[in-house]
Amino acid sequence: MELQRITKKYGDIVVNKDISLNLEMGKFYVIRGHSGAGKTTLLNIMGLLDVPTQGKVLLDNQEVNKLPERDKADMRMKNIGFIFQEFYLNEALKAYENVMIPMIINPSLHKTDIKAKSCGILDELGLGQRVHHYPGELSGGEKQRVAIGRALANDPRYLLADEPTGNLDRKNEVKILEILKNIAEREKTVVVVTHSEGVLEYADHVYMMDEGSLMSYGTEI
Amino acid sequence: MEQKYRWLLVRRNLRAKRRTWLKNMLLMLVACVLILVTGGLAYSIDLFMTDYLLGAPWLRDLRVDAFIEDKDRVLEALNGLAEENSHIKDIFEQNPGATCEVADAEKYGKMGFDMSDPWYGYIVPESDGYLDDRYLSGGRWIERGERNVGLLPEYFTMNLTGDMQDWNTRLTYVDGEKLIGERISLRYYTYRIMGDELVKDREFTYEFDVIGTYHNLKAGQDSGTVIFPDDDIREMTENVERNTEGITKDLGVHYHVMVDAVENMESVKQQLLEIARDISNARVTPVGGPGSLEILSDLLKSVGIVIGIALFVIEGLILATTFYHQIHDRTKEIGVYKAVGYRNHHIISIVSGEIMAAGIITFALSVMISGGFMLCLSMILKWKATLLLTQIQFALSGSHLLLGLVLSATVMVLGSAGGLIQALRLEAKEALVVRRK
Fewer CB in a 10 Å sphere around the end CB: N or C, chain A? Predict the structure, then answer.
């Protein structure tokens, strides 16, 4: 994925200013910055949830930011997984059913396999004993692992996480970051937006976002 | 999206948000029951009025009165009109009548008549169109030229005029069908004047076989009115007239014009008034005066429609508000769906599935409640009401339920439209908006 000279404005307010970024496969990217710096907006543009005012988002050399909404929805389903700070699990569904949500609409998956596949993903994330539990019965760290499972459901190439450890204690934060690091090592691109410092040791590339501009902060640990 | 998974999401969402859904369903249920009950009551009462009250012969009877010297002109004009106007079923002259007694009446006393009370009935000729074969309820109608046969009311008593007019269920009624095949003997008399009184003079007998019964409640006949062949009645009348001295001849003639249906009364009445204008002192009078009943029937229909529309609009507004708030409360959930690649039709499929499931459950419950209510009402009527009112069949007909279903579905679609549009307009990035602490 490549961002070319992305600018995002809301009226007169410039949220992202002339940002260019090339996301390589198998890398763990961290974008840091204070609240209101424009991190989430940039993540939304990467995830095709928002459109830049100027600039291009390229995926496999195809400009995807101008695609119709239905095509962008397909792109998201196949290529992008999201992780949110507040998990946003469906409280009515069991853990494995939450993971199944993206699989249900994926035409390339055999529907008979998806339950087994979602249970397998949760097992890999250390939740083998929790697959039949509802979110209300899980701890914060477990909920976020279910949310990661949901993000991985359709085997996407990009995993975009907005403050994934913002609601977790240090012990669970470490666990989640290790999982994300492992995912990146499996030739997937992980982008984490955060203001936490604990994530730095896991990152391959760290960027700072300040007043809409993206600056390289540190590389190749 | 496979139906299996769609229903999984629908089922789980309904269960998880059951408090909200139950509140919505309760509102829908109340409105739905009110629509069904109001419609059912209006439909049942209107059917009863149309079928029973407005169809009764006495409401389709127009009487033309004229002086005896105009008899030929009146009859000629009326016959001419009957040829032109197919809504006129018959024209007949009003008979002066004669008094009859049922021979061996004591044997029918044990069937319900209180022989110590005054009792009475009427005789009507078969072909005068007052009662016709539309009212046949058992056995058969009188055939052309047939003599000494008769039809009885299906359900009658000959006691207590006042109570019978109220169709009092406390009276013992006779089932006319049980008398089919019986031979009944009548006695009728000529009279002579003794002082100021008419006294019986000579006795005649007339026997008839009961060949059938007519639906007297529909026909509005509360007494033991019997239908005989024209020729038999003519013979009885002639016998009385021929053998009775000093009968005061009426100075007027009275013709009855039987119209086929109440809705055609006004047009026939106008034509009769034209005839009456040409003949001095002729007068046209509707016997039953159907106007007020028609107005009541129209009023009932109008009230039913107005209440139905009002409930329809209120239910629509309630649903629109509740669905709008419900979708608003589910912004994050719908945002997540969109973020992971769900398209609008997937979202609509899930949300409308929930609405449909709730709607079907609510409609089924409202049918059961409304049906139960109608059943209770019918049972109360059967238990306490007068005989005539017990004929009202309070029920939800198939077409009526279909109408209710279509109305409810329309209300649900319209009521939920706002919420669904809101769901479609939601942007996926809503899911990524984090409430910073």
Answer: C
